Amino acid sequence: MKTFLVILLSMLSIGTTSAQQPLRLAIAGLSHGHVHWIFNRKDKTDVQLVAIYEPNTQIADKIAKQYKLDKGLFYTDLDKMLEAAKPQAVSAFGAISDHIAIVRACAPRNIHVMVEKPLATTFADAKEIARLADKHRIHVLTNFETSWYAGNQYVKQLLDEGKLGEVRKVMVNDGHQGPKEIGCSQEFLDILTDPAKNGAGALVDFGCYGANLMTWLFKGERPVSVTSVTHQNKPAVYPRVDDEATIVLQYPKAQCVIQASWNWPFSRKDMEVYGVKGYAVAVNDLNVRERLQGGQETSQKLSPRPAPFTDPFSVLAAVINGSLVLDKYDQYGLPVNVTVVEILDAAKVSAKTKKTVILGR
């Protein structure tokens, strides 16, 4: 019995030590503006940056100088980086259109991947990513800022508990004054305003949030149809892509209106959910307004989501080391995000043809 306990304690000790080892993470691409997050989390020890792939040496030199990084971390060839550094995971911070190539390189090597929203620029790419992830048993996560919001989680809880009743209408408003107006770097602007690299303009950049939230709220359910209208309010600034998009998702008994814009007077990411028993509005990450059946409207301020949900790299590390198991229809997960890209694809077709797109069942 004593020998068994010693062996058991030893096994537990090994498992604990392994779980506490920092995740060996490589970065693929430096042109996406959100990449700076990884260089500004020195207070955390759950991730170890082991390599950076960036084919544009000017961008690489700029980041190396800005953050005083060892030039030995940098590679201009993705495959060579993966072979030399042997990361456990790769986080993609280049063009959205590059995500498929990164997963193609990482999946056969059993390297997990996290990308910035959305998962892909085309539905075909999204489906291939899902097939590769399943075949090679890797995690592919998609990082959405709205997954960090306690307000959205609170509204989802009200819905799941039946306090809102059956949903009839969801409104999701996302965007800002425009990427150029808010001062995005030139390399990031080059992605966002390129229809091939980004997939579209505001329609993809901010329409993806509403598609993600609605698919999450409805536990993976796909809409019956997608109708979209896009416009260029600022063609001189954004001549190649839309800067204004409205997407209507129709479900059997509910409708979701996504307002994605580079024309808001300020940055916003808010969600309104209306059911037959009441409504709840996630005003921002921490503030919620609600009115339930038989009561008056109330407002409250929430506490931030607990760790690891305040940091996407911590989420990635926890998923890979097994300390966090995401729900099947989590905002980060593949089932939801493949549907997000299907919705965006349909929205682009609808805007171009000026017709509603009926999704196959």
How would you summarize the topology of this molecule?
Blueprint: H1 2-20, E1 23-28, E2 47-53, H2 57-67, E3 74-75, H3 78-85, E4 89-92, H4 99-106, E5 112-116, H5 123-136, E6 140-143, H6 150-160, E7 167-175, H7 186-192, H8 195-198, H9 202-205, H10 207-217, E8 225-231, E9 244-250, E10 255-261, E11 268-275, E12 278-282, E13 287-292, E14 298-301, H11 312-321, H12 334-353, E15 357-358
Parallel strand pairs: 1-2, 1-4, 2-3, 4-5, 5-6, 7-10
Antiparallel strand pairs: 7-11, 8-9, 8-15, 9-10, 11-12, 12-13, 13-14
Features:
361 residues, alpha/beta, Dihydrodipicolinate Reductase, domain 2, 9-stranded mixed β-sheet, 35% helix, disordered N terminus
Task: Tell me about this structure.
This protein is an alpha/beta fold. It has two domains: 2-145, Rossmann fold, CATH 3.40.50.720; 147-304 and 333-358, 2-Layer Sandwich (Dihydrodipicolinate Reductase, domain 2). It is 35% helix and 23% strand. It has twelve helices and 15 strands. The chain has helices spanning 2-20, 57-67, 78-85, 99-106, 123-136, 150-160, 186-192, 195-198, 202-205, 207-217, 312-321, 334-353, and strands spanning 23-28, 47-53, 74-75, 89-92, 112-116, 140-143, 167-175, 225-231, 244-250, 255-261, 268-275, 278-282, 287-292, 298-301, 357-358. It has a nine-stranded mixed beta sheet with strand order 14-13-12-11-7-10-9-8-15. A hairpin with a 2-residue loop joins strand 11 and strand 12. Helix 5 runs antiparallel to helix 12 (334-353) and helix 10 (207-217) packs across helix 12 (334-353). Mean pLDDT is 94; it is low at 1-19.
CATH topology of the largest domain: Dihydrodipicolinate Reductase, domain 2
Determine the structural class based on helices, strands and strand pairing: alpha/beta
The H/E string reads: HEEHEHEHEHEHEHHHHEEEEEEEHHE
Beta strand %: 15-25%
Indicate how many domains the architecture comprises: 2
CATH superfamily of the largest domain: Dihydrodipicolinate Reductase, domain 2
Report the top-level CATH class of the largest domain.
Answer: Alpha Beta
Average pLDDT figure:
94
Biggest sheet record: 9 strands, mixed
Named CATH architecture of the largest domain: 2-Layer Sandwich
Instruction: Give the end-to-end Cα distance, rounded to a whole number of Å.
Output: 58 Å
Net shape = globular
Strand order of the largest sheet: 14-13-12-11-7-10-9-8-15
Q: Could you name the ranges where pLDDT drops below 50 across 5 or more consecutive residues?
A: 1-19
Helicity, as a percent range: 25-40%
